[in-house]
Amino acid sequence: MYRIVAIDVRSRREGRDLRKVGFYDPIKNQTYLNVPAILYFLEKGAQPTGTVYDISKKAEIFKELRITH
């Protein structure tokens, strides 16, 4: 199970997260994404990791980001 979090790039890898924005469980094939929080961080310049990018793309979050711009 993966927690999806927003974290400051200046923090160490296991440092304190700014906010939990979702989770992904590949065994149960469950995903929960807090879309408003994810969009907020993306609009502020956050860069998702490859895995988070793939999960977000599958959930069509980037389409919602384009609508707001």
UniProtKB/TrEMBL annotation:
One of its GO terms (biological process) is mitochondrial translation. GO terms for cellular component: chloroplast; mitochondrion; small ribosomal subunit. It comes from the Eukaryota. It is found in: Plastid, Chloroplast. Keywords: Chloroplast, Plastid, Ribonucleoprotein, Ribosomal protein. Belongs to the bacterial ribosomal protein bS16 family. This is 30S ribosomal protein S16, chloroplastic. It comes from Podophyllum peltatum (American mandrake). The lineage of its organism: Eukaryota, Viridiplantae, Streptophyta, Embryophyta, Tracheophyta. The gene is rps16.
